[in-house]
Amino acid sequence: MRISKINIKNFRSIQEAEFDCSEFNIFVGQNNSGKTNLFEAIEWFFKGLSKGKSITDLYLNKGNSKEISVEVLFLDALHGAENMRNEANKTKILKALDE
Fold first, then answer.
1. pLDDT per residue over 18-76, tens digit each?
2. CA angle 58-62-66, nearest 5°?
3. CATH code at 22?
4. DSSP tag of 57
5. Which of 12, 10, 17 is nearest to 72 (CA)?
6. CB of 38 closer than 8 Å to CB of 17
7. What's the mean pLDDT in 6-27?
8. pLDDT score of 1
């Protein structure tokens, strides 16, 4: 299982971005170009808000009220789930993929 595409809207400095991912990706850019915000958006997708944080912390300058969207698309998710070692997690993921 691997990430094939990432779509981000209104997450901190990223107004709208789409990344098509290959098997190996390198993100390069000048300071303050959004690299850290990209990785924090992915972290938010997987973990949600950190303890003690507010959704307003995710807006640029904490002043935006537009809907935040982070979408991560996977390739070979079924194959990856079938090879999971933790049976409880494997069952949950397979059920989610079936739906």
1. 999 999 999 999 999 999 999 999 999 989 988 888 888 888 766 667 889 999 998 98
2. 70
3. 3.40.50.300
4. G
5. 17
6. yes
7. 94
8. 80
Domain count, the chain: 1
Counting beta carbons within 10 angstroms of the beta carbon of residue 12, is it exposed (0 to 12), middle (13 to 18) or buried (19 or more)? buried
89 in Cβ contact with 19 (< 8 Å): no
3 closest CA partner among 18, 22, 16: 22
| Assigned token pair, 41 | 């958006």
CA 87 to each of CA 32, 36, 74, 96: distance values in angstroms, whole numbers, following the listed order: 42, 33, 21, 14
Residue 8: domain span: 2-98
**Contact status, residue 79 vs residue 1, Cβ threshold 8 Å:** yes
Structural tokens at position 25: 């990706």
